[in-house]
Amino acid sequence: QAKESGRNRYRFFAASMNEQLNRQRQIATSLRQSLDGDDFHLVFQPQIDLASQHIVACEALLRWQPKEASNWASPAEFIPVAERSDLIIRIGQWVVQAACRQVAKWRSQQLLPIRVDINVSGKQLHQPGFFNFLNDTIAEYGLTPKDIGIELTENVLIGADDDLLRRLTQLHDAGMEISIDDFGTGYSSLSYLKLFPVRTLKIDRMFVEEAPYQQKDRAIFEAIVNVGHKLGLNIVVEGIETEQQTLFCQQLHYDLAQGYYFYKPMPASQLADLLTRSEPN
Ligand code: C2E
Ligand code: MG
Ligand code: MG
Ligand code: MG
Question: Is any ligand 1 atom within 6 A of the Cβ of residue 181?
Fold first, then answer.
């Protein structure tokens, strides 16, 4: 009996694994086709300075609308597929170009200038040509490294060599904002905050979610904010969804917030409307 159900469970497991692999293969094929079409676009989620209530920057988030609707996938699903192949390199280049093009366009429309942060995957960052491509594209659109920020996760920095450190330091010295994304969820230690030229920590959504109610989440959250501030880093709290979370964070005097409570990711045109209405201070 036990053996029988074990075997069934194995069969079920194998079948669903197989389904998953098929799905991933389909997504990869479809992503590859999409690179030649225009099935990608960026949406932008504002970051708010709570003291002034101004939009100071935004994060560019990739969206994919494949021609074959059944292949539709969220970034949480298709980015990991792209990362497992070399697709992420070309997709990442598309994102760099699209972000720069957008900033240049807003610039030409005389909108209040804000920085656009892009997410950079490990494979992309460790690609030899990445930094030249980034610098060249920024220059090609008449921008400076201050106009574009990069978000890296902790895991991406594990095993970074001197060369990567040097290239990141050059960008930092040129004024580029380098942020650690999803801070607190990775495997690295705090020591790399000393090593790498990081300007901003983005505290992962999971900590703020329960922080107003759970003592442990609150303690971790406060500890991250304290360490960050003592190191002179900016803190962005990600994924604020409620007024309670906002009030809780305000008590800690953190700097910046990004979350559905303020704004969801939106098309460029919608963000342009918001920026038009902002008053320079
Ligand atoms: P991330 O960089 O941590 O981006 C934040 C994610 O949280 C976004 O999901 C955003 O829409 C979502 N979010 C923001 N505020 C809230 C909130 O208040 N509540 C909730 N529940 N969620 C919130 P999205 O756009 O689905 O992206 C997921 C992940 O996909 C990103 O996480 C990032 O790791 C990756 N990704 C997205 N675009 C790119 C890209 O262009 N390149 C690379 N390499 N990765 C990307
Ligand atoms: Mg991010
Ligand atoms: Mg994040
Ligand atoms: Mg995330």
Answer: yes
Please name which ligand lies nearest the alpha carbon of 202: 3
Encoded amino acid at 170, one letter: Q
**Separation of CA 17 and ligand 3 centre (Å):** 28
pLDDT, position 112: 79
Alpha-carbon gap, residue 168 to 124, rounded angstroms: 13
Rounded Cα distance, 176 and 197, in Å: 10
Residue 39 is predicted with a pLDDT of 96
pLDDT at 192: 83
> What is the separation of C-alpha 109 from the centre of its chain, rounded to a whole number of angstroms?
26
Element (H, E) at 218: helix 215-230
**How many whole angstroms separate alpha carbon 274 and alpha carbon 39?**
26
Taking only the tens place, the pLDDT of each residue in 219-246 is 988 898 899 999 999 999 999 999 989 8
Smallest CA-to-CA distance from 205 within 166, 237, 245 is with 237
Encoded tokens for 95: 């994102």
| Segments of the chain with pLDDT less than 50 | 281
- For residue 203 and ligand 1, the question of a CB distance below 6 A is answered with no
Burial of residue 53, with CB atoms counted within 10 A of its CB: 0-12 exposed, 13-18 middle, 19 or more buried: exposed
Q: Which residue's alpha carbon is at the smallest distance from atom 13 of ligand 1? A: 239
User: According to the model, what pLDDT value does residue 57 have?
Assistant: 96
pLDDT at residue 13 in the model: 67
CB of residue 61 inside a 6 A radius of ligand 1: yes
Instruction: Provide the sign of the torsion angle of the four alpha carbons 193, 198, 200, 204, taken in this order.
Output: negative
- Name the residue at shortest CA distance from atom 43 of ligand 1: 119
pLDDT (0 to 100) of residue 280: 53
Ligand 1 atom with minimal separation from the 124 CA: 44
Chain centre distance of CA 218: 24
Q: Answer yes or no: is the C-beta of 46 below 6 A from any ligand 1 atom.
A: no
Whole-number pLDDT of residue 24: 95
